[in-house]
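Quick one, T. Sequence first:
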Amino acid sequence: MSSNRGLVIAGFAVPACFVYRNVEKFRKRIGRTLRNANAEHDDAVRAIRAHVRAGYASCKLTCTVRKPWKSMSVRTAEFKKEIHQVPINLCSILCRRNFAQ
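Structure tokens:
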């Protein structure tokens, strides 16, 4: 496998990344057009505030639930298992608020 790493990356990883990125863009675009921007924005902010307050009340550090493989880091995100995780989709919250104005 290591002797053919370049072929694997060029033949599989790059096309798979391209397809994944375009599918995600399409899914997000559909999601933005079909949702009620103002009502969902307020509900999402309330839910995030509740999660942050719960983490503060338990005296734990807080982080997002973002998948470790989506980050651009080579380290493993083992620290996320021990601290309070807040489910947040910040991009959609900010985008919804901008569309509403």
